[in-house]
Amino acid sequence: MSTKKRWALVLRIFELTKDFPIEERYTLTDQVRRSSRSVCANLAEAWRRRRYQAAFVLKLNDAKTEAGETQVHVEIAFRQRYFNEEIFDELDDACDKIIAQIVKMIEQSERWIIRSPETTPRA
């Protein structure tokens, strides 16, 4: 998965939320920032757990959940008119693409697992 897409989403959300109303500082602003950053953090953890398929998939699922949470917060911001429709569509599409990539990684998790020499099948 491209780290570029993940970080682009985080940085875009961080920039856009600077303009949220002050009363949202400890609620929506913090929540959407936290969940978007958590996508990156969970993917980094998953990548480091590639020796163990179950642990790898678990962290990928955590990342997918956080991406979904980010998507919900983005929609709330749009419905509160903190974003216009163009920005909402951009962020929603970015979340959809990240989630789709994570789902693909989960479905093909065996491709990403690091095999130790003693567990690699011999030809």
Characteristics:
single chain; 123 residues; mainly alpha; de novo design (two linked rop proteins); 72% helix; elongated
Report on this model:
- This protein is an all-alpha fold and 123 residues long.
- It has one domain: de novo design (two linked rop proteins).
- The chain is 72% helix and 0% strand.
- It contains 4 helices and no strands.
- Helix 1 packs antiparallel against helix 2 and helix 2 runs antiparallel to helix 3.
- The longest helix is centred in the middle third of the chain and has 27 residues.
- The two termini are 30 Å apart.
- The model has no long low-confidence stretch (mean pLDDT 92).
The rough form would be described as elongated
SSE string, helices as H and strands as E: HHHH
CATH class: Mainly Alpha
Corresponding CATH superfamily: 23S rRNA-intervening sequence
- Total individual domains: 1
- Give the mean pLDDT: 92
Work out the number of β strands.
0
The CATH architecture would be: Up-down Bundle
Radius of gyration: 17 Å
The number of distinct helices, counting runs of at least 4 residues, comes to 4
* Structural class computed from helices and strand pairing: mainly alpha
Provide a concise account of the structure shown.
With 123 residues, this protein is an all-alpha fold. It has helices at 3-17, 25-48, 53-79, 85-107.
